[in-house]
TrEMBL record:
Pathway: Nucleotide-sugar biosynthesis; UDP-alpha-D-glucuronate biosynthesis; UDP-alpha-D-glucuronate from UDP-alpha-D-glucose: step 1/1. Its EC number is 1.1.1.22. It catalyses: UDP-alpha-D-glucose + 2 NAD(+) + H2O = UDP-alpha-D-glucuronate + 2 NADH + 3 H(+). This is UDP-glucose 6-dehydrogenase. It comes from Parahaliea maris.
């Protein structure tokens, strides 16, 4: 089938590569000419395991192409997927400018029947709005061309985006058109082989499913962070509690890891957007407000701990930071907890020596060159002469370091672990002062 995908970010590019991999002919349209040039040369603009190989194959067998020409991209295919960004506005609502720009281009350039598919995470009602916008524009131009729509949200996780997309848990198709449903069933057939994964519903429910899934997962995390904070003050160990509750299949082991808060391009934005959407319809979403506020507090926790332990004046002090990306296997620092650590330390006059296996470039792009930031090539280098180590991301490389070396490199054997990687009893044996999240040791009591 011929498919055009607007937006070559995580969602668009991964979906395009996956579709081309199973034989669909895919045109990717992006307004960023530099990005398009890089993609044509086979260069993935971000770190995502497995994607470069798929991109290369798609280019080699000419099933995947990239363009900045909206007219050509629209005329190339019957199915037009919208995978552009929907950033947060200052009021928390989703900014639909890019989505509606694509809708306007479609109306301007389409000359035959089209099916427009929203894959970006959008407020409930957006697919209908896009369809109405295109119909109105066609009507205003006096052109009568059939146009239909579907919502088809994406559930991929950064770092495992290719695998998630190739083996989805479910394929949600939200459309009022039986023909669109039938055609999209065919399109997704290669991904629907072992058991039935396609769930057909109306577009509003489809859009709401995506937002609800992200809100539920974010709620689990904020809930566990709240429990971790309680565990800390009452002297319980949240890691034991986590295993204890996860064994109940109604709760499950996934997404109950406490830590230094959730980040990334989805959870923070989508929780805010759903809360805003509810408010627009006159509903105060109090759980979502608590989920968001708890997360904001949690992201500040590591920096606060450093200050409580080492003082609010960090002049002359250096803090080592392991992990800059918002989670492992990505170079993405959007809304990353590490940013709160870096900025917190700087605001107190401290210096940072940071290491991340992938996000050094992303960090430089955000903060530029500064005297109080050294990004090192190796994790050990970051520790040299530092007054403490703060762990923000659970990259595998941090799970089992040579602790004697860590101790000898740090000027002070002090670790603040935002991901609960180590065993507090082991740390005590080694003579390392160690603070996890919710591990029964309140910093106030120890300080
Ligand atoms: C998320 C959803 O999982 C995905 O389905 C959706 O399509 C997009 O948003 P992503 O943002 O890539 O994916 O990452 P995810 O693995 O879900 O992690 C999000 C954040 O939650 C990370 O900062 C992670 O560290 C944090 N997290 C996750 C926890 O703090 N505890 C957990 O138990 C799980």
């Amino acid at each position: 089938m011929n498919i055009t995908i607007f937006g070559s970010g995580y969602v668009g590019l991964v979906q395009a590569a996956i579709f081309a991999d199973v034989g669909h002919r895919v045109v990717c349209m992006d307004i960023d000419a530099e990005r398009v040039d890089r993609l044509r040369a086979g260069e993935v603009p971000f770190f995502e395991p497995g994607l470069a190989g798929l991109l290369k194959n798609g280019l080699d067998n000419q099933l995947l192409s990239f363009t900045t020409d909206a007219k050509a991209a629209i005329q190339a295919s019957e199915f037009l997927f919208i995978c552009v960004g929907t950033p947060s506005r200052p009021d928390g609502g989703a900014d639909l400018t890019y989505v509606m720009d694509v809708a306007s281009s479609i109306a301007r350039y389409m000359t035959s029947r089209k099916v427009v598919v929203t894959k970006s995470t959008v407020p409930v009602g957006t697919t209908d709005k896009v369809l109405a916008h295109i119909k109105q524009a066609l009507h205003d131009q006096g052109r009568d061309i059939p146009i239909e729509a579907a919502s088809n949200p994406e559930f991929l996780k950064e770092g495992s985006a290719v695998a998630d997309c190739q083996s989805p848990d479910r394929i949600i198709i939200g459309t009022r058109s039986p023909k669109v449903l039938e055609d999209m069933r065919r399109m997704y057939q290669p991904f629907n082989r072992n058991h039935e994964k396609i769930m057909a519903m109306d577009p509003l429910s489809s859009e709401m499913t995506k937002l609800t899934a992200n809100a539920m997962l974010a709620t689990k995390i904020s809930f566990m962070n709240e429990m971790a904070n309680i565990a800390e003050v009452v002297g319980a160990d949240i890691e034991s509690v986590r295993r204890g509750i996860g064994s109940d299949p109604r709760i499950g082991y996934q997404f109950i890891y406490p830590g230094c808060g959730y980040g990334g391009s989805c959870f923070p934005k989508d929780v805010r957007a759903l809360k805003f959407l509810a408010g627009e319809h006159g509903h105060r979403a109090e759980i979502l407000t608590a989920v968001h506020d708890t997360n904001q507090r949690q992201k500040n926790k590591l920096a606060e701990r450093v200050m409580t332990r080492l003082g609010f004046d960090l002049t002359g002090k250096t803090i080592a930071v392991w992990g800059l990306s918002f989670k492992p296997n990505t170079d993405d620092m959007r809304e990353a907890p590490s940013r709160y650590v870096l900025e917190g330390i700087w605001s107190c006059g401290g210096k940072v020596r940071a290491y991340d296996p992938q996000a050094a470039e992303a960090c430089r792009a955000i903060y530029g060159e500064r005297d109080d930031l050294v990004i090192t090539e190796h994790k050990e280098e970051a520790l040299e002469g530092a007054d403490a180590l703060v762990i923000c991301t659970e990259w595998k490389a941090f799970w089992s370091p040579d602790f004697e070396q860590v101790k000898s490199l740090l000027s002070n054997p002090l670790i603040f672990d935002g991901r609960n990687l180590y065993n507090p009893a082991h740390m005590e044996e080694l003579g390392i002062e160690y603070y996890g999240i919710g591990r029964g040791r309140s910093l106030n009591a120890a300080a």
